[in-house]
Design a protein that fits this description.
Length: about 350
């Protein structure tokens, strides 16, 4: 007699199996998976040990089967940056064309707030999340992306496999800023950045610092290269700007990491009787709306916010529709020349 061998598929491991193995509740496992704020190290270790042991992987597809809500969460670091408005508007227009509604949350540059807001978006069964300039670390983004489609803007992680990124090529943009100043005959070029509490290559300021240093070195000016740091975001920077302008070794030209500081610097220089560009040439980054005001006239690196936001929006929609292969897109920067150089 011949026997037919039938390969019985392995039982799919679920969150309940993990809870039973770890000896905790399903809700506790869910909190660890969501990286919920306040989870103890002991609980996290028990659950993660069981996840690894059972080779459990949260199913985004299973979540999608419960039905879409046609809502998308947009998490921004702040709303005071005028550059962000163009990005959000372009992304929202892309979502609207596909009948999705975008709901905006503000992270206020604090990881616990960002984490809790993403968790709320997951709990409210939003179909995807667009995060802009996140402060949460890469591992947390990866963990959340196992539960909900995520696209990140202003977050350089070109090797991420579970979520997508869309960025200005900040490294190239910084080099372009230095090149623009060099073409005007300036050699004493400093960079004005801020204190990076946890410097990571994923941060746009870090990418711009790398681009600045590399271009100065290529020009044979590494001895003159220097990065002057203002207080971290959220702190008052006016005194730091004043100190920069009063310094005896003030550079002849300065590349400012963002228009957020370049516009106040230009204003403070003029208020102090320092002529721009005769005494100090200034170039910013963002090409934000205030930079283009004639009374400001700030030369700045353009990130093309409509393209950046629209691209990120399309990427998120394709993620929601089932695309699994990660995409990482860099938008070519350009320089908007005005009177400040």
């Amino acid at each position: 007699m011949k026997y037919q061998i039938v390969n019985t598929p392995k039982e799919r491991i679920t969150i309940r199996h993990v809870a039973e193995d770890a000896g905790v509740s399903v809700a506790a496992v869910s909190k660890v998976l969501r990286n919920a704020y306040g989870v103890s190290d002991l609980l996290r270790q028990k659950v993660e040990t069981s996840i690894e042991k059972l080779n459990y992987r949260p199913s985004v597809a299973a979540r999608a089967m419960r039905g879409r809500t046609n809502t998308i969460g947009v998490l921004v670091v702040e709303l005071s940056n005028p550059f962000l408005a163009g990005v959000i508007e372009a992304a929202n227009a892309t979502f609207s064309h596909s009948n999705y509604k975008a709901l905006v949350g503000i992270g206020r540059s604090k990881s616990p707030i960002e984490a809790s807001m993403i968790e709320s978006m997951i709990d409210n069964r939003m179909d995807g999340v667009l995060i802009i300039a996140p402060r949460i670390p890469r591992k947390m983004v990866e963990r959340y992306s196992q539960q909900i489609p995520i696209v990140a803007i202003a977050h350089h992680e070109p090797h991420a496999l579970t979520y997508d990124t869309a960025n200005s090529d900040d490294h190239k943009g910084a080099a372009l800023a230095v090149e623009t100043l060099l073409s005007r005959g300036y050699e004493d070029i400093a960079m004005l950045s801020y204190t990076l509490s946890d410097p990571r290559p994923s941060e746009v300021a870090a990418q711009r610092e790398i681009g600045y240093r590399e271009r100065m070195e290529q020009a044979g000016l590494e001895a003159k290269a220097r990065i002057i740091r203002l207080p971290a975001p959220g702190a008052d920077r006016s005194e730091g700007i004043a100190d920069f302008l009063r310094a005896k070794d003030r550079p002849r030209a300065v590349f400012v990491w963002s228009d957020l500081d370049a516009v106040p610097l230009l204003n403070a220089a003029r208020m102090s009787g320092i002529r721009v560009p005769e005494d100090l040439a200034i170039i910013g980054y963002d090409n934000s709306p205030p930079a283009a005001i004639p009374l400001v006239g700030l030369t700045s690196i353009d990130q093309n916010p409509p393209r950046l936001g629209g691209t990120a929006g399309q990427m998120l929609l394709s993620r929601i529709d089932g695309r699994e292969e990660a995409q990482h897109i860099l938008i070519e920067p350009a320089v908007a020349i005005r009177d400040s150089i």
